Amino acid sequence: MIPAFTGTIFICNPATGEFVELPPGSPSLLREHRVAFGFDPWSGTYKVARHFIRSYRDTTTAQMDDGEEGGTTTSREYSCGHEILTFGGDVGKEEAWVWKATVDPPYPIKARTPICLPGVFFWSALKSMVLPAKVISNVILRFSLLDETFTVHPNPPCSEYLGRNDSLSALGGKLCYIHSTSPWDNSIWLAEDGSNLAWSLCRRVCLPIPRMLLAFACASTDRDKIFISVDACILLRCDLRDGSLEEIINMPRDMLYDLRNGRKINIGALFVAHYMVPYVESLLRIRPSR
């Protein structure tokens, strides 16, 4: 799935060469929307989930300091919606390729990559915020594709909010939280799914190069090893048994692209982010053959 900043959403299958634009969803204030894409094992279909903002309201309250009126604080409340689109499997024509409203999320969802595991989506959500843009706390929303409901769960004990240098990912079928305590040091937390997310520290990792913004993790075919992408540029393989790291590729320097004239180029110093996503080849067509 490829969501565009303009609000358009595309589904691509590299194996079949299909590139399909989804129908537009409900309008969102400020053109902000969040999207997730995954497989629903309960129905044997693929589902796209979309969060959007209907409206928001700012409320200003006065603060008292030692009995005297002090400054003011402004809190923001959102009215948010959530909808899903289904395709593939045995879904009927009246349900396929149509956005269907679900229950509203209990909190507004943040602009961070959601985690899609079989039958469930995980979102980072904003529990409370005081302006100007001061985050008070975050929670994790778990959306079940079975009954299409949300449950609210806490962040791991290492952090009350998903910071700009932290990230969510999926490792070994579990929700993973990468907490970056410094440009070199990262702690990897895993959650056991259930009625409550039970967090445990998996491994502390020291990067060979300092990250500027983000270290993102992705599962590999070896359950004892994961990939770590540093600033969407350097790809490392980490052995979770001892925390050792191996550089796989420097993507701006070593990744080559084919031009139509037959030449090959690399990105070099150009500011380009290389996104790492898990991929399993499939010949399932996005749209059925006519």
UniProtKB/TrEMBL annotation:
Q: Residues in domain F-box associated beta-propeller type?
A: 10-208
Q: Which Pfam families match?
A: FBA_3
InterPro entries in the record, alphabetically? F-box-assoc_dom_typ3 (IPR013187), F-box-assoc_interact_dom (IPR017451)
NCBIfam families (UniProt xref): F_box_assoc_1 (TIGR01640)
Q: What is this protein called?
A: F-box associated beta-propeller type 3 domain-containing protein
